Amino acid sequence: xxxxxxxxxxxxxxxxxxxxxxxxxxxxxxxxxxxxxxxxxxxxxxxxxxxxxxxxxxxxxxxxxxxxxxxxxxxxxxxxxxxxx
Length: 85
Prior knowledge:
- This protein is mainly α.
- It has three helices and no strands.
- α1 packs across α2.
- It is elongated.
- The relative contact order is 0.05.
């Protein structure tokens, strides 16, 4: 395994790196390696996390709920000619 020395890390960046390592319950070295793998696409995990928090809303309406919704928004299809003159 190779070793890399990174120079020029300021106090704020050092604190942020250490804080992230503590939050993820990893050593600074482990956190940096994992972060670099993610950023370079070498990680098994995707760079962007996939969220499923809105899945319950997608395709979750019954036929009646869909029919009611479409009826409720029907008024928005009508053009008010007084406004557009």
